[in-house]
Amino acid sequence: VNSGFEDVAILDDCMAESNDELGAAFQSYSRRRGPDARCLVEGQYNLDRGSKFGTLLFFVGPLVLDMLCSKLLPSVFAPSTLTLFGNSDISFAQIRKRKRQDRLLQVVMFGALLFAAASGVRGLTNLAKTLWLAAR
Question: 117: which of 2, 24, 34, 62 is 20 to 30 A away, CA to CA?
């Protein structure tokens, strides 16, 4: 999605809807594009202020995580943010909302896996301890 082209198309629609009255057209445009503009600015700000480690952690990391999750469970997880940017049927605000939902589900899923792994290790430790005591 090229947000500049979208902006022009939406402003043109707003101008037509308001009979070329600039004030009404700009108010309509701001209402329609405000959420997407906010998402773009916040996303770029977060990338620009980061260190190399921050970029790796907050940009590359989520891209890799999204790629893996969407390949393993495509009916549950959406593709990466960059892939979604190529879909003109979804707004930037909708992309951000979807990726936040994916992140929450990923945290819950990996938390459950860690809990299961820790429980398994604890169970194996208890089994080894019981066997060791029985062998004595």
Answer: 62
Q: Which two tokens stand for residue 101?
A: 């939902």
Cβ-in-10-Å burial (0-12, 13-18, 19+) of 18 comes to middle
pLDDT above 70 for 105: yes
Distances (CA, A) of 131 to 51, 80, 122: 51, 48, 14
For residues 116 and 93, give the distance between their C-alpha atoms in angstroms, rounded to a whole number: 35
* Residues 6 or more apart whose Cβ sits within 8 Å of residue 81: 62, 63, 66, 95, 99
CA distances from 21 to 7, 11, 18, 94 (A): 17, 12, 5, 29
